[in-house]
Design a protein that fits this description.
mainly beta, 7-stranded mixed β-sheet, 4-stranded antiparallel β-sheet, 46% strand
């Protein structure tokens, strides 16, 4: 059974950086499209970024474009989210999720498209 475990969250000052990791086990990462989501208190879960199984397609929410970068290392069964220029509004629990599409270049940030989720990692941006 596919399992996802996020790590790398923490407390950081505004303008700082964090790199989140999503370690996949129970199966190889290769056939899966991966997305990052976040959920702040009192708000709905929202898509942050996704990366296709080929790695060729990456999408970002408008709020994080130019600051966040998603990447994958299939050899390590891990997906990363590099977050730079963090702002207080980035504070949330961050989740990674996996799903499979028949087309290698497809990725999406729609919550309903994903059926495998990690437990989340807290990111707090505060001075």
């Amino acid at each position: 059974q596919l399992q996802l475990v996020e790590s790398g969250g923490g407390l950081v000052q505004p303008g700082g950086s964090l790199r989140l990791s999503c370690a996949v086990s129970g199966a190889t990462l290769d056939p899966y499209t991966i997305a990052w989501f976040r959920q702040a208190p009192g708000k709905e879960r929202e898509g942050v970024s996704c990366i296709s199984r080929s790695g060729d397609t990456r999408h970002y929410a408008d709020s994080v474009k130019g600051r966040f970068t998603v990447s994958r290392d299939n050899a390590k069964n891990t997906v990363y989210l590099q977050m730079n220029g963090l702002k207080s509004e980035d504070t949330a629990v961050y989740y990674c999720a996996a799903t499979r599409f028949s087309l290698s270049f497809v990725c999406t940030q729609e919550v309903a498209s994903f059926d495998n989720w990690g437990q989340g990692t807290q990111v707090t941006v505060s001075s």
